[in-house]
Design goal:
The protein contains ten helices and seven strands. The protein has about 250 residues and is of the alpha/beta class.
C-alpha cells in the first residue's frame, strides 16, 4: 500500500534507542491498566494476543507477563534483538515475532486479542487499514485500538512546537465517529470508546527560544493544573488519546 505517511527507515530510526528496561516498560504500560482489565478476560485456557505494528514490544511483553498470555508482534521493523530483549527482561518466553508488512500480509490464523497502538493514523486510507484488523479476530475476540488525538487545541499546540510530528499523522481518523462507523461495517460491539488522558505536552523536535517559552508555559499550566482534571474528565479538545475496545460477535 502506497499511502503510508512514514517509512520503515523512519520507524527504525525512531526506535533506535534501547527500550529494554523493566521499570520503564512497567511505568509506561501500567498507565493503561484500567483498559487492560476491561480488555483481557481471565481464562484457564491458553489465549493469544497480537499487536499490529508492535515494535518495540513493550505492551506485548507487559501483557504477556501480567496475564500469562502468548504475545505475537507483527511489524516490518528489521530489528528483532530489541523486542527479544524486551520479552526477556519481562520474563516472557513463549512469544512470536513476525516481520511482515501489515498492508500486504494475509494472516492464516486469528487471535483472541488484537491491539493496535499508534498505527492507523500514519496512513491516508485509514479505513482500509482499520478493516484489515478484523481479519485477525476470532469469533468472540476483542480488538483494542489507541491513537493520539491531535485535533482541537492539541493541533494548534503541535503546529507551534511539534510541526514535523504533526505532519506524519492523519488527523481525519481522530474522530469517534470513525470508530462507530468501523464497528457498524463489521457488526462489532463497542465495549468502550472515548478520548483519554491529559494534554500531550511532549515534543519530538529541537525547539528555538520562542518555542521553548511556549513549551514551558504549557508544561506549567497543564501538568500541574489542567491534566489532573482531564484524567477524570477527558476532552476532545485537550486529551492526548482516543481509545476504543471492540468485541466480535
Amino acid at each position: 500500500m502506497s499511502d503510508k505517511l512514514t517509512t520503515q527507515q523512519y520507524w527504525e530510526a525512531y526506535y533506535a534507542s534501547n527500550h529494554i528496561n523493566k521499570e520503564r516498560i512497567t511505568s509506561v504500560c501500567s498507565y493503561y491498566d484500567e483498559f487492560w482489565e476491561m480488555f483481557i478476560k481471565d481464562s484457564t485456557e491458553e489465549q493469544s494476543l497480537i499487536e499490529i505494528g508492535g515494535f518495540p514490544g513493550r505492551y506485548l511483553a507487559y501483557l504477556g507477563a501480567k496475564y500469562n498470555i502468548k504475545p505475537t508482534c507483527l511489524d516490518y521493523n528489521s530489528d528483532t534483538k530489541e523486542i527479544e530483549g524486551v520479552f526477556k527482561v519481562m520474563g516472557v518466553e513463549n512469544y512470536e515475532i513476525m516481520q511482515q508488512d501489515f498492508t500486504v500480509y494475509k494472516t492464516p490464523i486469528q487471535y483472541d486479542y488484537v491491539i493496535s497502538n499508534g498505527f492507523i493514523e500514519h496512513f491516508e486510507d485509514f479505513n482500509t487499514i482499520l478493516d484489515l484488523h478484523v481479519d485477525y479476530m476470532k469469533p468472540q475476540s476483542k480488538l483494542l485500538i489507541m491513537i493520539p488525538n491531535m485535533r482541537g487545541y492539541v493541533r494548534f499546540y503541535k503546529y507551534l512546537v511539534d510541526y514535523k510530528n504533526l505532519k506524519i499523522h492523519n488527523l481525519k481518523c481522530m474522530h469517534l465517529q470513525v470508530f462507530k462507523d468501523f464497528a457498524k461495517r463489521h457488526d462489532l460491539n463497542i465495549n468502550y470508546l472515548s478520548h483519554y488522558g491529559g494534554f500531550p505536552i511532549g515534543v519530538h523536535q529541537k525547539l528555538n527560544i520562542a518555542q521553548k517559552l511556549i513549551f514551558k508555559a504549557h508544561r506549567l499550566l497543564f501538568k500541574f493544573v489542567v491534566n489532573p482534571y482531564l484524567m477524570k474528565h477527558p476532552s476532545r479538545f485537550f486529551s492526548s488519546s482516543i481509545i476504543a475496545i471492540f468485541e466480535k460477535k
